[in-house]
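Class prep. Sample record?

___
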Amino acid sequence: MGKYLQSAQRCRVAKKSVKPKSTVKTKDVKSPDYSLGERLKFLRESRKLTQAELGAKANLTQATIANLEGGRKDPSVQTLEKLADALDVHIATLFGTDEVYVFDLKRLRRKYNSADKLTPHLYMAIGRVVQYAKDIGFTK
């Protein structure tokens, strides 16, 4: 299981607050390559949680959170599910890339109970996704 998770750990984050370990060149544009640990740290910090607070919410120890963020420990699927729940994200968000975007509609619905309350940026992004789905025949 550890080898599978190591290969699945590569994620990308649009924020510049976390420094990437390396870069991957795609279509002549360099984009940072983020590990699962870096993604977890970004999500935790964006929610203004300490490692101990996230650990308590996920029923894990602070040391486990530190080891995961530092890349010293490979999480089980059960641990990933606990972390996703504690961070209020879909588990797929932990593995999003430039080619895989995750729209956590449950979380969006809780935060924005009508389209009128969406931010202009989010409204446009969702509109583009819906238009693309129509263009490729995914939806009518």
Q: What stands out?
A: The beta strands are 22-26, 29-33. The first helix runs from residue 2 to 8. Residues 103-140 form one domain. The chain has two domains: 2-98, 103-140.
